[in-house]
Specification:
With 883 residues, the chain is α+β, with helices and mostly antiparallel strands. It has 25 helices and 32 strands. A five-stranded antiparallel beta sheet has the order 2-1-5-4-3, with helices on both faces.
């Protein structure tokens, strides 16, 4: 009995445990969010979750015990479900994520994701099947919308990249370049074949590759990079340009992820930072219109501002959020909260994930970006940008982001872009078009393109537009005129393309217009300038030529044709070589190449006339801004003839002067030799008759000495001048002492001469260092001539010799006298050869006009400066300054 009781107790306990397990299992089934069915081996419904009844709008009687295919009046008789349960499942114990699409009478057309498991029941009973059902209709619809948006974006990008004058580049997820458009080729200097299939870092300076790649990767990861990223690129010509990159992740036509980037050259435009007012306006616009929730708080968690998205996300008004503070919307139990707050306090900013709580008590996970900043009062504030990252929000955000990227692309394009309907209304237009025409986007959407087209251009544009609609053409381009809101004309280069759906039905028309008003005005100015140029050149008295950089003539005026004898047609078929003497062709092309480098040239050039005669000309050439060469020339035949005659006359004069100098040198030598013999004999007779001479004889000997000295001095002057004029004199520069080696000796030699003339001679030297680098012979001659002249032209008084230094340390020698002086009129001529103040046999003093000229030449040889100050009947001062 005791054993029987134990057995009964065990059965009771086991039964109770089974009941508890069954109840626990049923509770789990009923709390599962997705619809759930439990089937037996005959595919009859054993159990269904509460969510199954609620979602499919059926009751228990219609479900439990029923064959699954009979559920909902045979709504579940789905071929793909039969295949799953009768074919796939028996072979496998489970299957995952099996998509089934079916139109239910109660809930409409749905796409379901099925997951199934075969499970053995307890105590060895037969297997059961767990079938979980997830409704993915909305998710599939959003994926389809996203795919269509990406397809449209890709089509718009294809047109924009191929035809817009906007530098654009595409690379794959490995940063390998796949395409650059023509505008990017112009920006970078590379042909697209040179960079395709190469890493994007080929475009960056070597020392900035890592930082540039980091910036681009950061821009691609950030959701807030609407303003673009500044990056330095290295052009093919090794120039560095700063561009504004706006990379966006998109899908290509095959569904592969690529990166499309618009690059705006901002090298010349980057001037200063955006002003505070503009920054505040942009911030306010971003704050108010952001799709993300933004809270402005203090570091301690007080909220003092919340944007509309935050109010919508949390379900509170801004006033309620301000009262709640950060702790009222953040899940304070989230372990990431202290970690993120610590990192923000350390680095000043933080990014991460955090759990938030709505007003209705629901929790949601969000990406946050928070930073510490100071307001205009210097108080620390924090910003927190919050983005819901549930699956539903992610899908919605992707759609919005794709549309936002497309809008950003056309708004940032420097071309005017519009999407037109079939009647020609610009339903969507970018800022560039509004700026060009003066109308807002709303105003333009109510107009047709013909309303702002210049009347004379309407017919041609409208005809082509109609051909586009009818399918005769797929695109057209033309130059036309728009009329600005205020009446002024705007010239544009227009490209219009039809976008068609997969079935070929016209969907949208995209028009792009480039403002070419400036170019048109410039062309008009050039045309007027060319006409003025033609009138001037054709009426010019000088021949005028214009040649290209290869030396071929592009234009010649009438005067040029007349001068050379060729026709204008012949001249325009010639190059420089065709009208140049054969011996001069290489030289002239060298001059031409130099002209292309330096920009101008003025030289003499010989030209060959049609009759073969050589024509000398003055050739004045200038390189024009367009790379052409403008040349004017003048016939200098008569001038060359006159120059030749002048040269011949000069050569004859120089030959005559040379013969004169050589004659003087020879004559001086012939005179000096017998004079020296006479002086020797006179000295001998003087010594022989020393005691026997009377006063008359002594005077006679003195007169002979004076006369001989005068003759020798004259001969020395002639010989020295001759040497200088025939370049026969070779100076020897050594260091000499002006005091001890030159001036003291001359002072002693002239003491007797001065005493005989009744004059006082004074020598003064107060400088210790009087050494100079000079030619000793010529320096001696300088001062011997100046001292002798001072004594000769002074009747009474004194002669002074002084050595001194000026403020800069130069040695100066002055020879002063109290003689007859020199008139002011004669001073400029005092150093000229053969020039004397008095002429003829009646002059007061002897001389030949050679001495001071020789002194000046010797000063030049020694790089010394000679100055003279003089006053008639007062005296003269000659000053020699050594460098």
């Amino acid at each position: 009995m005791k054993n029987l009781k134990s057995v009964n107790n065990m059965k009771l306990f086991k039964s109770k445990s089974i009941e508890e397990i069954r109840e626990f299992a049923e509770n789990i089934v009923n709390t599962v969010r997705e619809p759930l069915l439990i089937l037996d081996r005959d595919l009859r419904v054993v159990k269904a979750s509460r969510s199954f009844f609620d979602f499919f709008k059926v009751n228990v009687d219609e479900t439990i015990g029923k064959l699954i295919y009979q559920l909902g009046n045979n709504q579940w008789d789905i071929p793909k479900l039969r295949e799953l349960l009768e074919t796939i499942l028996p072979e496998k114990t489970a299957f995952d994520n099996y998509e089934v699409e079916h139109d239910f009478s109660t809930i409409g057309k749905r796409i379901m994701l099925l997951n199934a498991r075969q499970i053995k029941r307890a105590f060895g009973k037969e297997k059961i099947i767990l079938l979980a059902i997830e409704d993915i209709t909305e998710r599939k619809r959003e994926e389809k919308t996203l795919s269509e948006t990406n397809r449209l974006t890709q089509e718009y990008l294809d047109i924009l990249f191929d035809h817009a004058n906007v530098p654009s580049i595409i690379w794959d997820t490995s940063f390998v370049i796949k395409y650059i458009n023509h505008a990017f080729e112009k920006l970078s200097g590379y042909d697209w074949t040179e960079v395709t299939d190469k890493k994007i870092d080929i475009l960056f300076p070597e020392n900035k590759v890592d930082s540039a790649m980091a910036l681009i990767k950061g821009a691609l990861q950030s959701d807030e990079n609407m303003g673009g990223t500044e990056v330095d690129i290295l052009t093919k010509n090794k120039d560095i340009k700063t561009v504004l990159w706006n990379p966006k992740n998109i899908l290509d036509k095959a569904g592969n992820q690529i990166v499309a980037t618009i690059a705006q050259d901002i090298t010349a435009l980057k001037r200063s930072e955006i002003s505070l007012r503009e920054s505040e306006e942009k911030y306010r616009s971003f704050f108010e219109n952001s799709l993300d929730a933004i809270l402005l708080t203090s570091p301690d968690g007080k909220i003092f501002s919340a944007n509309p998205a935050a109010c919508k996300t949390f379900g509170y008004s801004e006033e309620e959020l301000i009262k709640l503070g950060r702790s009222g919307v953040v899940d304070m139990t989230d372990p990431q909260l202290p970690v993120l707050l610590a990192e923000r306090a350390l680095k000043g900013k933080v990014q991460g994930e955090l759990t938030f709580v709505r007003k209705d008590g629901t929790h949601f996970l969000a990406d946050i970006s928070s930073a510490i900043f100071k307001d205009n009062k210097g108080l620390e504030r924090t910003s927190m940008i919050i983005r819901d990252i549930t699956d539903r929000k992610k899908a919605e955000q992707k759609v919005r982001e794709s549309e936002r990227r497309f809008r950003a692309i056309i708004d940032q394009a420097p071309l005017s872009i519009a999407l037109l309907d079939m009647e020609g209304h610009p339903v969507i237009s970018n800022l560039c078009l509004s700026n060009m025409l003066g109308y807002s986007s709303d105003e333009l959407s109510k107009m047709k393109f013909v309303d702002f087209t210049y009347p004379e251009d309407v017919e041609e544009d409208l005809n082509q537009f109609n051909d586009l609609i009818s399918g005769k053409i797929t695109r057209y381009s033309m130059e036309k005129r728009f009329v600005h809101k205020y009446g002024n004309l705007v010239w544009v280069n227009l490209l219009v393309t039809m976008l068609r759906g997969e079935n070929g039905i016209p969907r949208e028309i995209i028009g792009m217009a480039e403002d070419i008003t400036g170019r048109k005005n410039k062309e008009k100015e050039i045309k007027e300038s060319e006409e003025k140029f033609r009138i001037i050149t054709e009426n010019s008295a000088d021949p005028i030529f214009i040649a290209n950089s290869s030396g071929r003539y592009l234009y010649v005026n009438t005067k040029a044709v007349q001068m050379l004898g060729y026709s204008k047609e012949e001249m325009l078929s010639f190059t420089i070589a065709d009208i140049s003497p054969q011996r001069k062709v290489r030289e002239y092309f060298q001059i031409f190449r130099q002209l292309l480098k330096e920009g101008s040239s003025f030289t003499e050039v010989e030209l060959v006339k049609k009759d073969g005669k050589i024509l000398p000309t003055d050739f004045n050439a200038v390189l024009l801004p367009n790379g052409f060469v403008y040349v004017s020339c003048r016939d200098i035949t008569e001038r060359k003839r006159a120059e030749k005659e002048l040269i011949e006359a000069k050569e004859k004069a120089e030959e005559s002067d040379k013969l004169k100098s050589e004659f003087l040198a020879q004559m001086s030598h012939e005179i000096r030799t017998p004079i020296n013999i006479l002086l020797g004999n006179v000295d001998y007779l003087n010594d022989l008759l020393a005691e026997k001479k009377d006063s008359g004889a002594s005077d006679c000997f003195d007169s002979i000495k004076v006369a001989s000295r005068r003759i020798i001095r004259t001969i020395d002057l002639i010989l020295n001048i001759s040497e200088l004029q025939t370049s026969g004199y070779k100076p020897v520069f050594v260091k000499i002492d002006l005091d001890s080696e030159i001036l003291k000796k001359l002072y002693r030699e002239n003491q007797l001469y001065a005493t005989q003339a009744g004059l006082e001679i004074i020598y003064t030297c107060n400088e210790k260092d009087t050494k100079v680098i000079a030619d000793e012979y010529s320096v001696t001659k300088i001062f011997s001539n100046l001292i002798e002249n001072a004594i000769k032209f002074t009747k009474k008084g004194k002669v002074e010799i002084l050595i001194m230094k000026n403020k800069t340390g130069n040695i100066i020698v002055e020879i002063k006298d109290t003689g007859i002086g020199i008139s002011k009129e004669f001073l400029p001529k005092v150093f000229k050869l053969f020039v004397q103040e008095e002429h003829g046999y009646s002059r007061s003093f002897d001389g030949n006009g050679l001495g001071l000229s020789l002194v000046k030449n010797y000063c030049d040889i020694n790089k010394a400066i000679i100055e003279v100050e003089s006053e008639k009947n007062v005296g003269s001062t000659f000053r020699v300054i050594f460098s």
